[in-house]
Known about the structure:
Strand content of chain A: 15-25%
Number of domains of chain A: 2
Helix content of chain A: 25-40%
Low-confidence stretches of chain A: none
Number of strands of chain B: 24
Largest sheet of chain A: 8 strands, mixed
CATH topology of the largest domain in chain B: Rossmann fold
Radius of gyration of chain B: 28 Å
Number of helices of chain B: 20
Strand order of the largest sheet of chain A: 6-5-7-8-12-13-4-14
Number of strands of chain A: 15
Low-confidence stretches of chain B: none
CATH architecture of the largest domain in chain B: 3-Layer(aba) Sandwich
Strand order of the largest sheet of chain B: 3-2-4-5-7-6-12
Radius of gyration of chain A: 19 Å
Structural class of chain B: alpha/beta
Oligomer: heterodimer
Distance between the termini of chain B: 38 Å
Distance between the termini of chain A: 22 Å
Largest sheet of chain B: 7 strands, mixed
Largest interface: A-B, 20 and 17 residues
Shape of chain A: globular
Order of helices and strands of chain A: HEEHEHEHHEEHHEHEHEEEHEEHEHEH
CATH class of the largest domain in chain B: Alpha Beta
Amino acid sequence: MDMKVKGSKELLTEVIDTGxxxxxxxxxxSCPYLVSYKGRIVLLDNCTLSEGQCYQYCPRTCTDMDxxxxxxxxxxxxxxxxGVTKEVLMARSTDANIKGRAQYGxxxxxxxxxxxxxxxxxxxxxxxxSDDKTPSAFLAxxxxxxxxxxxxxxxxxxxxxxxxxxxKDSTERMGVVAMPCQVLALSKMRNEPPQDRMNIGNVKLVxxxxxxxxxxxxxxxxxLHENLDLPRVIKFxxxxxxxxxxxxYTSSGKISFPLDEIRKFIMPACTYCLDMTxxxxxxxxxxxEGIEGWNTVIVRTDVGADLxxxxxKKGKLEVNILPPENLAHLKEASLLKKKRALKEIITxxxxxxxxxxxxxxxxxxDNLLA
Amino acid sequence: xxxxGIDAPGTTQLFIxxxxxxxxxxxxxxxxxxxxxxxxxxxxxxxxxxxxxxxxFYAEWSVNEKVALESAAGASFAGIRAIAAMKxxxxxxxxxxxxxxxxxxxGAGLVLVCCDDPSAISSSNEQDTRNIAKWLDIxxxxxGTFQEAKDMTKxxxxxxxxxxxxCVIRSVTRIAHARGNVKxxxxxxxxxxAHFDNICPIAPTLTKFIPYPSAWLHQQLHVxxxxxxxxxxxxxxxxxxxPEEAELLIITCGSCWLYSLEAVKxxxxxxxxxxxxxxxIWPLPQKLxxxxxxxxxKILVVEEIxxxxxxxxxxxxxxxxxxxxxxxxxxxxSGHINAYGELNPNMVIGATARIMDITYESRPAEYSKKAAExxxxxxxxxxxxxxxxxxxxxxxxxIKNALRLDGRDGFVTGDIGCYSMAIGPAGFFQERTxxxxxxxxxxxxxxxKLAQFGFNQPVLAVCxxxxxxxxxxPALINGVYNHSNFTLVILDNSATAMTGFQPHPGTGITAxxxxxxxxxxxxxxxxxxxxxxVCDPFDLENTTATLLKAIAENGGPxxxxxxxxxxxxxxxxxxxxxxxxxVDPDKCLGEACGCNRLCTSAFSCPGLIWDKDxxxxxxxxxxxxxxxxxxxxxxxxxxxxxxx
Lengths: 370, 644
């Protein structure tokens, strides 16, 4: 794989214009030319630089998965379905307030609140639902603000743009809640720290979310606008299989759409993503199939492990073992995503040797294609 | 330097060509002058307006050249000598009226001054407007000196009355804007008395002031031109210098008279080359020309811009008796003189030397080579740009961003004014079409009707405030009437800026300095029932958001008015800056800023420079207008603006 760092022109031609852009936001705000706007990345001016941090940290340009994995997890890229795991648990918040706002178990909100309380972080970059019901990323510095980030959004949101706007000389320690693509971008930054920006070492905690795909703002918001009384929507939910629905909860009740009706709004870029469980996060969190009100939690690093231990010890989280069936299903689903993605990548590139953005060991590729 | 109204006949004053023309009009006793600003004609009206009150005549900036000529004609019909002045494009705008008034005849002397701009130094196009004289049958004079500029203009009014037809004076930049000695004549002290007579030359009730019956009047017009030709044959504005029999005869006119004189002198050919300088250009003084043609085997015609004399002289020869001489012609058709662009003495020297088979080196070859190389080594590349503090820079920055954010490949149709420079880096290359006054909205109208062919690109038409009154209103109304989908951005900087801050219907001041009712652009647009937004271009965020909303809409045209005064006008009046602006060298990341010098290379205000030694951005305090816009551009917040 050609590891050459290129510029914004190539970012457009190789990623944004080819349908690979996930709107993670790693490029947006990295310089004043690149911004996110209504679900797109826009280059406001003609940049003549041949190399740029926009290209360097994009999770859809040349990514050496082994190097990233060594930097973040201390070992080469794992061939396991769920990536590197110390523990796989299920958990839920013990706080009624958090449970009331949470999508499932409220684990992410609880973990962040604890991290803030204990002084591990000074703030957290989260996503909340804005007035028009689209997601908007923000920097939370209080428990109240962290609570605003509770709940799932399902539409792609350029969260890392907020990180890029943090001043260069800031000493605030950050937590970030991110999708797998965003976690990958963050990991690329940790691997080769960006120059003349906020010190990436200030990111002390990365909470990754499980993700099969995200919905594109373009089109989906119009769909919502046409089919719902948006001001009355309180939350969205895509319950785990076998539900096969997209639910909108309004002040007057629940409105459901068949998931198949929604599929056309899936970001094309998600087709090429191998990561369902945010494999480079400290902790990865998702739902539990068949068990409402709980989260699946994958602990990957010491930072993650310590925080989970503290949460359990302080009675902030109820923690149980994840039932083996659920674990098996999770592994199956994650492996399926990897296999599908690799096939799609090879179809797109037209060449088994050209995996577009991802650098994997041959053995891993062979296993996935088998 | 004296004003044109100085009462000192017989003295010599230093005037630019335009002032000389204006002085000529004064000496002819005009009572009325109308014009629209247009380089290189603008100073004619400016100097007339400055003395109009004192000298008891009327001068106005009209809303466009058509109205200017028509209103001058109105004065003429009522017995008042009137002059209308404009650049070449203005004649185009006035041409329909011109084509009709040649048929009817006039009242008191009516003179049209047309100032062409060879090489289009300050114009959209270049054109040789002398062609209109042949096209529409108009007597046309072209001054070759500053004295002539005055004398011809004065005489043109007499000629117009003698022939009973409008007469044209044609000038070019190098006459209009260059300076020379002019001996003054008397200023008439007469009282103007205006009255419209219901003259009936043909029938008891039929008026004179109609082009009816056109074919018969056309024939009458030809008779008038024959009369003009007779008069021209002995005009003092045509002269010959040189030997009785010349090896080469240069026939020239206008600015090229002095170039030709210089060429002959430089090549030491006074005894071999003669120059016939014509001042009466149309109709051609054929007998005079014929006389000189017979004395030389070679003719070189030197003129700007088209081969007007050249072609018409050749045409004339075809009608001469067979025994007449048929010399060899040189000029534009032979490739000796460019058939486009401005001429200069070097070109004429070169052509003459070539024909006379002389080698002439204007400077040593070694020197020429060096001179050709030096500009690329030492001269910085200077682009045409907006002044520091210009609201247009901010407007086009917002337009650029809005169109990029919108993402549908939107573009701007441009128009004429300072903002025309937005075809280049000054306006971030935003204008993608640019033609004549009003064409921005005109072209947009067509584009706005192409949805049925799959067109979905946002179209932004721009126009200035003066342009809006001049030509854009009908195009906007067309958009409303025909339901065309575009956004009209009116750049209201309260001035006709490009030509020198002349007032217009929106500024509330007349050419003669009187206050008048303001024609409110916003109200006018509202009366058409279109959506109107008003923005301050210096508020980049709001302006960008407003543009985004406007281009996202469909349906008929909508208007966004960018309202902020031209910085030069504001600075002259208020004499103090808005802010104090400086770059904090600690915050500025210099080359290390990931933006690749966004401030100086992309935004490129001349007041924001690069300090090569420090490797950082810096405010050039001499040039900076302290508008504060750049403070919003810097991603590091290194540009600081403090209220003064």
